[in-house]
Prior knowledge:
Low-confidence stretches: 20-48
Number of strands: 19
Shape: elongated
Largest sheet: 6 strands, mixed
Structural class: alpha+beta
Oligomer: single chain
Radius of gyration: 25 Å
Strand content: 35-45%
Order of helices and strands: HHEEEEHEEEEEEEHEEEEEEEEH
Amino acid sequence: MVTRKWDIVMTRLIDFVLSQQRGAVLGVSVIAIMSTAHLTPSQSSLRDIEPIVVTNVLDQPGFPLTRILGVCEITAESAKCWDSLGKPLNPLADRIIRYHQEQEYPSLSIRPGVKNRWVVMESANASEDDYHLAYTEPGNYAGAISDWRPGTTLSWKRLDAPYEDKHSRLICNYRKRMPPERLAVKKGAKVDVDGTEISVTAFGRRTTAQVKADQTSFMGPLRYQITVKRSERDPARARIDEPIPISMAGRQIVRVDGNGKPMAAGWERTDAGVAVYVTSNAGPLNAQTYSLNVDPQYVAHLQFSMSAARKVIFEEILLDPATAFSGK
């Protein structure tokens, strides 16, 4: 209870410090996405993968409202934070120090030979239909405080830059769960996943050498394979998880006998659960081969669970406090 009351006090202090800049900050969101009014379908597809570029605030439909409160320099001895104008945010620094003091195994990772900074973000809690922040680049999570303010989370991520840089950018990768798609298991079958075409190029039985070369799964030998091709290599388009085999009756196949035939009900000593593994994911056509213990002749579709991906770039992040406030 004491901690929660103290967090309320801290948020009010930080709000007071930021109040003079907030009006300017909230009006600075710059979206680097072109109007689609005169774009051809192919141009529109290219537009979809362009990153959203903002300064300090992300306020876009489908994304949780996110604003950068400040930037911090954290050492073993102390922490100091500043806002977008370089003015000190001492309450924020105090709260981050206290957070790490309260952790059972407190630690912060740094990259030697560069300027290490932590970007502090306040984000509204995302709904199921929103994009969720998956990871940032360079990809170092440092800490988070839930319910920092009702319905929001405070978090900070490491950012590194050359010592001579005064500003930098934080790259945030967002994902959103999409409805599953089913791809028919027949050569040439295609399905569109968020602008990326997936097609079946081959399927059938694996050679004895291929089966022996792989480590046998606990579900039994993977005697069959299905190869699909993606039209794009760009990982920022959509994440596609390992597929689920769907039977001719339209139901998920959950177990098979020793010959790869789906079992409708009951368990026998020779039954095994379904196993699907990626055994090849390379090549100029981005061919992806799935090895499985289900005979493809019994598989009507592969059901893919997917998440759409979008990239957001926060630009003009001030890496150092203003000289008048830095104590130098």
